């Protein structure tokens, strides 16, 4: 349970987990995993390594391109790292790549316009490739999938009210996206007010 994921993200030191033990029971698989079946896994136990801590830190830090520029937010600490999971092959006894069907199908059908329900591999896919896929998706589907228009004045003038909720442990859409939209609406509609007054006006 993480009560303040924002403070945790700012102050948690992943290296503090190095050397600590973990013990994960075997699973028989689930019928749903991010809208897709989840495979069975064997018993896992050991100690957290420096490599493992560095990997988790990199994942939670979000996507950056090859020049170190932030391309997209990631989820808050406390959310599952479903998109980074691997799949255990009981035949070979090895962990292998597990491409999220939800994300893979978005690329094959939504971006490449192919009748494929997933990517066959991530060979030659770089951080810059992921960045470019996101930009392409934003531009192609902005009119139906994006909530980026910050001036809600006509809606406000008509007496409209919005109740906005975003779970902090959402592992599908990063909460930071809702925070950014909230702030863009506040700064656009109440630009002549102080931060506190504009926040109060938006809340009202």
List keywords for this structure.
7 helices; 8 strands; two-stranded antiparallel sheet; 204 residues; alpha+beta; globular
Would you write up a description of this structure?
The chain is of the alpha+beta class and 204 residues long. 38% of the residues lie in helices and 14% in strands. α6 crosses α7. The longest helix is centred in the middle third of the chain and has 19 residues, at 127-145.
What secondary-structure arrangement, pairings included, does this model have?
Layout: H1 5-11, E1 21-24, E2 30-33, E3 36-38, E4 44-47, H2 50-60, E5 63-64, E6 70-72, E7 86-89, E8 94-97, H3 101-111, H4 127-145, H5 153-157, H6 175-189, H7 195-203
Antiparallel strand pairs: 1-4, 2-3, 5-6, 7-8
Helix pairs in contact: 6-7
């Amino acid at each position: 349970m993480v009560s303040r994921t924002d403070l945790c993200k700012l102050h948690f030191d992943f290296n503090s987990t190095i050397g600590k033990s973990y013990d994960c029971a075997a699973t028989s698989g689930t019928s749903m995993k991010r809208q897709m079946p989840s495979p069975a896994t064997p018993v896992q136990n050991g100690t957290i390594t420096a490599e493992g801590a560095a990997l988790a830190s990199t994942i939670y830090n979000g996507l950056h391109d090859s020049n170190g520029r932030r391309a997209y937010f990631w989820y808050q600490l406390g959310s599952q790292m479903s998109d980074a999971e691997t799949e255990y092959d009981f035949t070979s006894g090895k962990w292998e790549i597990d491409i999220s069907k939800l994300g893979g199908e978005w690329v094959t059908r939504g971006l490449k316009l192919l009748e494929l329900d997933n990517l066959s591999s991530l060979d030659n896919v770089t951080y810059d490739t992921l960045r470019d896929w996101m930009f392409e998706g934003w531009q192609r589907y902005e009119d139906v999938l994006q909530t980026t228009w910050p001036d809600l004045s006509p809606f406000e003038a008509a007496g409209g009210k919005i109740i906005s909720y975003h779970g902090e442990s959402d592992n599908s859409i990063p909460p930071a996206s809702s925070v950014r939209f909230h702030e863009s609406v506040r700064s656009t509609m109440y630009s002549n007010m102080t931060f506190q007054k504009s926040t109060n006006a938006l809340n009202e």
